[in-house]
Amino acid sequence: MPADATRSGSDPVLSLRGATLRFDDRTLWSGVDLDVQPGEFVAVLGANGTGKTSLLRVILGQQRLTRGEVLFEGEPVRAGNPGIGYVPQQKLADDGTPLRARDLVGLGLDGGRWGFWPSRRKRAVVDRLLAEVGATSYARKPVSRLSGGEQQRLRIGQALAADPHLLLADEPLASLDLSNQRAISELIDRQRRERGFGVLFVTHDINPVLGMVDRVLYLAGGRFRTGTPDDVLRSEVLSELYGSPVDVIRARGRIIVVGTPDSGHAPHDEHHDAGHEELCDHDPSDAEAVAL
Length: 292
Ligand SMILES: Nc1ncnc2c1ncn2[C@@H]1O[C@H](COP(=O)(O)OP(=O)(O)O)[C@@H](O)[C@H]1O
Ligand SMILES: [Mg+2]
Fold this sequence. Notes:
Elements: E1 14-23, E2 26-36, E3 41-45, H1 52-59, E4 67-72, E5 75-76, E6 84-87, H2 101-110, H3 119-132, H4 148-160, E7 166-170, H5 178-195, E8 198-202, E9 215-220, E10 223-227, H6 229-232, H7 235-242, E11 247-251, E12 254-258, H8 284-291
Parallel strand pairs: 3-8, 3-9, 6-7, 7-8
Antiparallel strand pairs: 1-2, 1-4, 4-5, 9-10, 11-12
The structure holds adenosine-5'-diphosphate and magnesium ion.
Adenosine-5'-diphosphate binds next to helix 1.
């Protein structure tokens, strides 16, 4: 698909209509309306426990909505759709896994819509994918010997193997250093422009992708806002969303959100201090010092 694949007049690749997800008596999000256009880059923001991964599981057909609908290219979603590429939350490969880098990318073809490929054709396709994600130089190395950034490139290569029209990436920058955060973000950005797929990119931290993001979906306390980063990442908008005063600070091209109340409601959130939620790096105090 051409580089200008983002067209407001085209059919959305993904549509959420009144999408609501509840577990027991807890509403993760409710009434979400969102269209993702071909080639569009949408960041999904929110503290841990706000339902970002659950949203991806809904789109993957692994979790049913409580209410509303979710359509992929106009059809209700179903499990195992090869049109949707998925980069799950990162797990580093165990030591002793004999899988080589190129095998990992090749798995994306085996599971795809063409079944098992003839080996020569498959080798050529894997070589092209490895080149596209910048992994040619370590194609024959065991995955377990590679760095987090190198492994993440392979996982993106694997997700792209079936030529998806939508890429879901769940915190693909977590545990990467700043230069790898940049490299992985730029890789996804370049690929979505060249191939024209839509992207839902889950992240705690908007900063590494701020220049690439077309729109954000910001989840907080069972509610949400959508819009451009400039529309949503403002003190008034987030204060209204959270129902308490929140400051959005912009400094040296970075965005820091200070004063959010929901980190105290996020039992699995090891990174966040109460009352200080970030769209910034792993160590909030450190990132704040850098930005201010
Ligand atoms: N299948 C489920 N049944 C009950 N609760 C769940 C289920 N899946 C997720 N949750 C809960 O929903 C909340 C949101 O989880 P998740 O979507 O993983 O959030 P995030 O990715 O934003 O951190 C968590 O409190 C989690 O424990
Ligand atoms: Mg998650």
